[in-house]
Structure formats: C-alpha cells, structure tokens
Amino acid sequence: MDPGEHEEGRVLYSPEKGSKIVQNVNAINVRKDSRWTFWLITAGIATTFGAAVPTGYNIGVINAPANFIKSWCNETIYETYGTVFTEGNLETFWSAVVSIFLIGGVIGSLGGAWVADRLGRKRSFLLCGFLLVLGGLCFQFCKAIGSVELLMIGRIVVGLAAGLTTSTVPMYLTELAPLGLRGALGVFCSMGVTGGVVVGQVMSLEEVFGTDDHWQFALSFYVILVVMFFVPYHWLPESPKYLFVIRRRHDEAVNELKRVAGRKVRDEYVRQQIDAMRRECTPENEEESVGDGERREEKAKERSIISVLKDRTLLLPLVLVCALQGGQQLSGINAVFFYSVSIFESVGLSSTDAKFANLGAGCLNLFVAFFSPVLMAKFTRRFLALLSCSMCAIFLFCLTFIVYFIDDVEWFSYASIVAILLYILFYQIGLGPIPYFIGSELFEVGPRPAAMALGSLASWGCNFIVAMLFTTLQSAWGAFVFLPFTVTCVALTLLLRTYLPETRGKNISQIVPLVAKGFSSKPLVP
What we know:
Layout: E1 6-8, E2 11-13, H1 15-33, H2 38-60, H3 66-81, H4 87-118, H5 121-142, H6 148-176, H7 182-186, H8 188-203, H9 215-220, H10 223-229, H11 240-246, H12 250-261, H13 267-280, H14 283-288, H15 293-300, H16 305-310, H17 315-330, H18 333-346, H19 351-369, H20 372-378, H21 381-404, H22 412-429, H23 434-442, H24 448-477, H25 483-499, H26 508-511
Antiparallel strand pairs: 1-2
C-alpha cells in the first residue's frame, strides 16, 4: 500500500482524494436515510390539513360573501343597539372584522416561541386545532344568536391559531425530517396555506355557501378538516430534537427518532443524529445536563425572544428570516390577486367571470406549490430564492408599466394577464415556500422557536400593513402602487445574494458559524 494511502473498512483513499470520497459516501448515506416513512407522511398530512389548510381557508373565505355579512352586521347592530351605520361607518367596521384576523396572527406569532418550548412542538399543533375549532363554532352560531361580537371573537381566535401555525408547524416538521427531506417536508405548511386559500374561495362562491342564508357555513366549513385530521394526533411523534435539547429526555428522544426513521433505520444514522443534537446543545446547557432535572429544565427555556434579539451572533440569521417572511407579504402577492379581478374585467370578462378567472390564478398558485417538495429536493435554496425574488421584481415592474398604459395599447390587457400569471409562477417557486421553513435551517434548536415567532410576526405584521394601506395607495398612485413591491423584491434579492448561506443538505452545526458574525459574515466564502 502506498505510504500516502489509508484503509478504512473497504475504502482506499489518498489524502488528496480522501475528502472527495468521504463527501460522496456521506451523500450516499444521506440519500439512503432520507426515506418517506409512515410517521413522517402522517405528521405531514395531519399538520397540513389540520392546521395549515384551515389557516389559508380563513384568508380566502371572507371576501366573496362580504356584502351579505356586512348587511347582516348592519341589521344586527341596529336590532341590538338601535344604531344605524352609514356606508362609511359600515366599511370601517368591516375593515375591523377583516383585519382583526391579522392582529390575531401577530399575537399568535409572538406567543409561538413560548408555546413551542413550554408545550412542545406536538402539543403546539394541538393548541392550533383547539383554537381553530373554537373559532369555527363562533362563526357557526354567531348568526343564530344574532351576535356580531361572536363573529369578531371568531376572527381573532382563528387569527391566533394562524399565527401559532405559521410559527410552530414548519419548525415541527423540519425537526422531524431527515436531512435530505428537510426542505421537502418544510414546504408542507406553505402548500397547505396556499391550498386553503383556494378551498376558501371555492366554498364561499354563491354556488356553494356564499349566500345570504348560508355564509356562516362557508366560514365554519374548515372545522370538518380539523376534526378529521386530528384523529391520528395521539400517535404522532414529538420532535426528537425538542426532547433531547430542550427537555433533556434523551432516551425518549432516541425512541422517537427511531420511530420516525422507520424500521430500516441504520444504527449509524441514529448515532449521527444523536451527535448532531449534542452539538446543538450550548456549552451552558451541557454543563447543566449533569445537574438536577429542575435546573436543566429552567436552563433549556432561557432563549426567550428578548435574549435572541440581544444576541449579536443571531443578528444576521434573524434579519434574513424576518426579511424573507416580511418580504413575502411586501412582495405584493395579495395586492396582485386583489388587482387581478379588475384586470380580467378589462379584457371583456363579466364581473362573475373575472372572479372565476381570479380563482383560476389561485389554482395556478396551488398547482405550482405542489411541485415545491420536488424543487426543494433538486435545487439549492439560494438559487430558488434569488430566481424568485429577481423575477418577481421584473414582472411587477412590467405590470406597473403595462397597467399604466393599458388604455392606450389594445393588447396590453392580455399582456397584463401574462405578467400576473408569470409573477405568480415565480413567486411560488421561492418566495412562497422558503420563508416558512428557512428559520429552522438557520437556527439551532434553542433559539429556533423565538426566531420562528419573530419571522411569523414580521409576516403577519407586513400582511396587516398591506391590507390597511393598499386600497388608499391604489386610489392615490394608480398603477404605480406596484412600485413599492418591486423595490422590496429588488432589496430582498440584494440581501439574499450577499448574506444567505446555502442550507440544503447541511447540518445546523455547519450553517450557524457562517452567519455568526453579523453583517461581517461571509457565508459564501468556502
């Protein structure tokens, strides 16, 4: 044997070739251990249809029956309080009914970190389901008992559930997933929200439940999904990382790890995962692991939102998470869907046909979302995020130009439809799914709940800002209302190009050092 060569098992390698061989072996092992097991699939389906789809449903269901609900609110307020709203007062009241859902999302996001650490990832999902059912019951009975207050309580309760869902469910799924499936499982929440919006739009059509007599059924229909997909809840696994790092229940964590990985799991894979979880324990926590259980538990809860905000090593990943989640809303996706109805009408469609065409655009959004797991497995996060942000910026600018001159050029009406559809296509390959789970790939288990909560807060907060300002800005700026969204996409592209590390196929311990020096970090330097 050559002096420069070594034997390990049956693999011969030289120092020059050794690194490449080890990388190839690791890649083979990652693919071998990245299997869709029964409990992975069950957890993905249960959380998607039990929490993510109802979250999207409550976003999409409220618009179509709005006139019927507003009329009922006006009559009920008169009967209860003897007050007659003017048209302006009624619109203001309705804005409050719609926006209180977003306020609930902000509050739910803030509580996500505490809930995820105190109750655990699995029981956080249970709390989401409880709130969703409670909100659905409020919707179902508000008309029967003539209570506008119950309608508003229902809206804020489902908002709380929505904020909790977006801050905890992606974290739960990515902590269950093996390295090779982390991105594929991480986009399930995004797919669920996108699908829920479409289902909500369909159920609120006048041909279904969107009528004066049945709008309460439209608002509460999603409860059936929640109840159905919480049936397997008792048997769902808890996050092994949560049990190992936060709760220090090591034996239970290993048992859950083996159960999630399936019967064919290799002992070597289990050892690797245990070593990876040990590396995610901070030095302080490692010292405490030999102390009494009560003190260990206290130490595991220390990464509050305040402590994460004060930690300079977490500044850059926190900026990336909040920029992506906030930028997802400020990229204009909701504004494009709002404006698309009038654009479809401009090409000669009736008001009803334009609404169906808008529903078709939502279906395109959902259709592309179905390919998200494949895209996450085949392409790097950086490539998809940069492609999505840059192309969204281009098509938003094109849409601004086209809408401004739409009355002067005959074929611009059709060009605007093409611009909208292409914008939706490129939004959904990156900006749509990646912000939901990127926090789980940039943060270790300790600060992860707080980071995910802050990212979710940025998302719901920016959603609220767009909802409050878009109509006013549209009246004042006309076609130029899309320019702020264009600027957001350009700024996101520049930020991600400079500072977003590639996370696909890497352990957290490899990623964290790349972004630990704030804006002095150089995550792209090998």
